[in-house]
Amino acid sequence: MSARYRCLGLAAAFMLAACVSQETKRDAINAINAAFRADYEAVLASDGTRTFKQPPGTTFDAMNAALIRLGLMIEQRKPEIGFVAAEAPAPLPLDRSEWDRAAKFDLPKARAILERYIGPLADLFNFEPEGLDIVITATVIETDGGSEVSFTMRMREVSPPKQDLPRREYPPPTAVRMGLEKIWKTVDLELAARTTKR
Question: Following DSSP, what letter does each residue of the chain receive, concatenated?
Answer without folding.
Answer: --HHHHHHHHHHHHHHHHHS-HHHHHHHHHHHHHHHHHHHHHHHHHHSEEEESS-HHHHHHHHHHHHHHTTPEEEEEETTTTEEEEEEETTTTS-HHHHHHHHHHHHHHHHHHHHHHHGGGGGG-----TTEEEEEEEEEEEETTEEEEEEEEEEEESS--SSSSPPPSS--HHHHHHHHHHHHHHHHHHHHHHHHH-
